[in-house]
């Protein structure tokens, strides 16, 4: 497979998944700097300057031109234009991907992460032809585990002290969803 074409933005009922813009900074600072939000994600709590630096790098992460690359999308609430989270898709290898997501605490429990993840899974399986999408969760991140299970993912592995995460050895859980499972589970 050579580069994968991604058609942006992706609109859902309540959300727009799109490339980041420089004017997203204020929205990103709200959740990148929240210790509860970043507790289970691989970045530290960020101040405004660190978030601005990270945003600059994200401006170019809108294509999947080779394996190992991440597509990083802002998740915008259609009703307000506010960026409430981010959803990520990695082109892992051949026809395999990895899903990631982070959402501001004010928007937890409202189905936004599921809506955004479903849209990205549609992109992965329907548009890009992926065969398998995985997700790695730090043990204890029960909300993400429940979300992945609702999306049809199954837990494939539990790596005890398998990752050095935020200064300590941590157990990680590996989930996966196959293309035929995605198609069978869609409404």
Automatic annotation (TrEMBL):
Residues 15-180 form the N-acetyltransferase domain. It holds the Pfam family Acetyltransf_3. Keywords: Transferase. GO terms for molecular function: acyltransferase activity, transferring groups other than amino-acyl groups. PANTHER family: GNAT FAMILY, PUTATIVE (AFU_ORTHOLOGUE AFUA_3G00765)-RELATED-RELATED, N-ACETYLTRANSFERASE DOMAIN-CONTAINING PROTEIN. The lineage of its organism: Bacteria, Bacillati, Actinomycetota, Actinomycetes, Propionibacteriales. It comes from Nocardioides zhouii. InterPro entries: Acyl_CoA_acyltransferase, GNAT_dom, N-acetyltransferase. The keyword Transferase applies. This is N-acetyltransferase. Gene3D superfamilies: 3.40.630.30.
């Amino acid at each position: 497979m050579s580069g994968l074409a991604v058609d942006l933005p992706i609109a859902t009922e309540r959300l727009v998944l799109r490339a980041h813009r420089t004017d997203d900074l204020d929205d990103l600072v709200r959740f990148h700097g929240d210790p509860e939000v970043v507790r289970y994600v691989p970045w530290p709590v960020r101040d405004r300057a660190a978030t601005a630096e990270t945003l600059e790098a994200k401006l170019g992460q809108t294509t999947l031109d080779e394996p190992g690359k991440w597509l990083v999308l802002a998740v915008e609430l259609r009703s307000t234009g506010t960026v409430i989270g981010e959803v990520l898709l990695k082109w892992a290898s051949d026809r395999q991907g990895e899903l990631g997501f982070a959402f501001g605490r004010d928007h937890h429990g409202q189905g936004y992460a599921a809506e955004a993840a479903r849209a990205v899974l549609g992109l992965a399986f329907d548009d890009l032809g992926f065969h398998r999408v995985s997700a790695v969760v730090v043990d204890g991140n029960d909300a993400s585990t429940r979300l992945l299970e609702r999306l049809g993912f199954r837990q494939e592995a539990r790596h005890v002290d398998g990752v050095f995460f935020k200064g300590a050895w941590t157990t990680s859980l590996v989930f996966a969803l196959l293309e035929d499972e995605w198609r069978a589970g869609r409404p």
